[in-house]
Amino acid sequence: MPLPELTVDALGQALQTVGVQAGDGLLVHSALHPLGRPQGGLEMVLATLRELIGEEGTLAVPTFNFAFARGEDYDPYATPSQGMGAFSEFVRTQPKVLRTTHPMQSLALLGKHAKALAVPDTCSAFDQGSAFEGMLQLDFKLLLLGADIQAASMVHYSEQRANVPYRYWKDFHARVHLGGQWLPKKYLMFVRDEQYQPQLRLAPIQEALQAAGQWRQTPLHFGQVAACRLTDFVTATDALLAADPWALVANRPEVA
Fold first, then answer.
1. The domain containing residue 237 runs over which residues?
2. 41-49: long-range contacts (C-beta < 8 A, 24 or more apart)?
3. 79 domain residue, yes or no
4. Pick the residue with more confidence: 173 or 3?
5. What is the mean pLDDT of residues 48-74?
């Protein structure tokens, strides 16, 4: 069965239904295939988002790539995103886009607050003072375009704050291209502990947000568009992990 066409009007209506409006900052996770074949390609999706949020808005898309963890060098302007969807990689390559320097968990940024969010160079992507914390302070929204809540990278911010027992700190070393030169750098990541092989299940976060009336969702062809305030997402996640640090692990060990 051929994919239905995703039109400007249908996408725009869905975005407005979940509360996207002028001046918004949006952290966008995408899996566009269920939403249909974009009329005008990925350019249309980006243009529709930018038109709705206007000049006062800001877009952030995760452009993660874990090659640095294997000792490969990182160039914010050339290293592609991997596994984050075609839209994230498309945004990364656009003129005027800025990118954060964390080589494994980076963001591509476009709009009013892009420069301020791109400046911090923190050891962990979710540290105090990081771009992810900056989005919280700027009251960004989480926007899921076809992706479900399992894609929400902001969960790592709360996991780090809660010092969850199924992760541990690991440092990685390679070179990063900064200021026109290659510099040896060390970055940290709160990685999964393989002795537990944790399988995250983020549905309890969505359930908590829905129960509080803080989650908006609408169907679009074979998929969904959903949104919530990033602060509400973090508050709900923090509460779950405070009550039970294993709350988001589907295969929690019996001793936990």
1. 5-243
2. 42/86, 42/87, 42/90, 44/6, 44/8, 44/11, 45/6, 45/11, 45/87, 45/145, 46/87, 46/90, 46/91, 46/94, 48/8, 48/11, 48/12, 48/15, 49/15, 49/20
3. yes
4. 173
5. 98
